[in-house]
Amino acid sequence: MGFLSVIRRWALRDKMPIREISRRTGLSRNTIRKYLREGAAEPKFKTPTRPSKLDPYADRECAARLAGTGQRTCDHETST
Question: For residues 29 and 54, is the Cβ–Cβ distance under 8 A?
Answer without folding.
Answer: no
